[in-house]
Specification:
alpha+beta, SH3 type barrels, 5-stranded antiparallel sheet, 7 strands
Amino acid sequence: MSEFIMLGQAAADTGAGETAQGTEQQTESVTKVPAPGDEGQESKPAQGPRGLGDMLLPLMLMLLVMYFFVFRGPKKKQQQQKQMLADLKKNDRVRTIGGIIGTVVDLRENEVVLKIDESNNTKMHLVRSAINVVLTDEGNEKK
């Protein structure tokens, strides 16, 4: 595959070979020696540039992975939120996006009435999209 090139010098650089006319010229000879383990192997031509299909495959895989991380996650969360609002029913304990905790008293098309204080019978009218999570009896989020 590869070959080592050895350079040999015919004359020494010590100055012993100098004559009165000047210095002797040095001659070089090139000897090709095969690299260890290359005996009997033919050299293969270098590969040319890769095809367009070979370069597009990794790019397509990266875009697919990016789609799942960037777009699919928030879209799935929006669908879960929409389903949670559709499943909302009377007497559910909910927390709003503002942090108010109350009990659903009445449901309308785009509006929810929450009872937020038992002693004063305080009620709030909110749009459905203001409901953040439905809470369980212990106050934890419902899964």
